[in-house]
C-alpha cells in the first residue's frame, strides 16, 4: 500500500489527499453505484417514476450486476432510453491473470482511463477481495511495488465498490471478506472508504466484521476512523520494532513517533471495542532477528492485538530478500513465548504477479 515517489511530509500527504487534484474526477453525471436504496428511490422519484422503482434499481445494480440502465428489462422502454446515458459506475476489465493457487488478479480500467488493481482470493470457505483505495500511493515505503507509476488520485466510492462486484461476478460466488490492502493508503481517502464500507455492508450484504482496513498510520487519522464506529478490523503496518527501523522502511513514520502510533491504536480499541491487528513484513537481515521479535513483544505486551507476519515478496530491482524458513519460525516462536498472538501470512498469486502492485507495474512496462 505504498509507493516509491518523492518523499513528502505527513501533513503534505494529507493535504494532497484532500485537494481537488487528488480526488476522483467530477462529471455532470454522478454514477449511481454507491447510492443507498433510499437515495436511489429519491432519484427515480425525481425522474418522475413511482417510488417502487427505487427498489428495482437497487436490486439490478447490486445483485444483478447491471452496467447500463438501458438493460433493466423491468423499466419502461421509453424511460430506459431517456436515462441510458446515466452512468452506473462500473469499470472495464483491462487484464486478468490466474495463479496456480486460483488467486485472480484484475486490472480494471476506470472511466477516466486509469488502471487499478484488485485481487480475488478464494479458499474452501470464503472468497476474499483485496481492494485498492487510491491510484498509486504517496507513502513511499521502501519495500513496496505499488506506486512505481506514481500517485495519481483517490478512488471514488463507486470505484471501490465496483472492485468487489467485479470479483463476485467473475467467480460467480458471493464475496465473504474484504481487505483494504491493495493500492493506496486508505486513511488518505477516509470519506470514500467509509462510504464504500457502509455500501458494501448495507447494499451488497457483506458483514463489516469480515472487512479489514490496512494502514501505515497517519497522525489524527486513526482517531478519525474510530469516530465512525465501524465494526471492521484495523490492521496497522508496523514493519519495524522501533522508531528508527520503522523510519528506514516507512519514510512517513518520521512524523509519527512509534509510541504515539501505539497510543492511538490503544485508544482505537477503547473507542470501538475492536481488536487491532499489526502487520509486520519480514525482511531478511533487516527486521527478522530474535532481538527484533523481543523488542516488538515488549511494545505490544498487554495490548488487545494480533501480529500478522508477512514474509517479503521480492520485486524487480529489490533491495531486500525473504527470510529463511528457519528465521521465520524463530520469529514466530519468540513472539509466542512472550504471549503475543501471532500468525504468518504468505501472499498468494506471486507466480502470476498477483502480489500487490506487481501486475500493474509489469503491464505498465510493456
TrEMBL record:
It comes from Halomicronema hongdechloris C2206. Specifically methylates position 2 of adenine 2503 in 23S rRNA and position 2 of adenine 37 in tRNAs. Its cofactor is [4Fe-4S] cluster. It catalyses: adenosine(37) in tRNA + 2 reduced [2Fe-2S]-[ferredoxin] + 2 S-adenosyl-L-methionine = 2-methyladenosine(37) in tRNA + 5'-deoxyadenosine + L-methionine + 2 oxidized [2Fe-2S]-[ferredoxin] + S-adenosyl-L-homocysteine; adenosine(2503) in 23S rRNA + 2 reduced [2Fe-2S]-[ferredoxin] + 2 S-adenosyl-L-methionine = 2-methyladenosine(2503) in 23S rRNA + 5'-deoxyadenosine + L-methionine + 2 oxidized [2Fe-2S]-[ferredoxin] + S-adenosyl-L-homocysteine. This is Probable dual-specificity RNA methyltransferase RlmN. Keywords: 4Fe-4S, Cytoplasm, Disulfide bond, Iron, Iron-sulfur, Metal-binding, Methyltransferase, rRNA processing, S-adenosyl-L-methionine, Signal, Transferase, tRNA processing. GO terms for cellular component: cytoplasm. Belongs to the radical SAM superfamily. RlmN family. It comes from the Bacteria. Its EC number is 2.1.1.192. Its main location: cytoplasm.
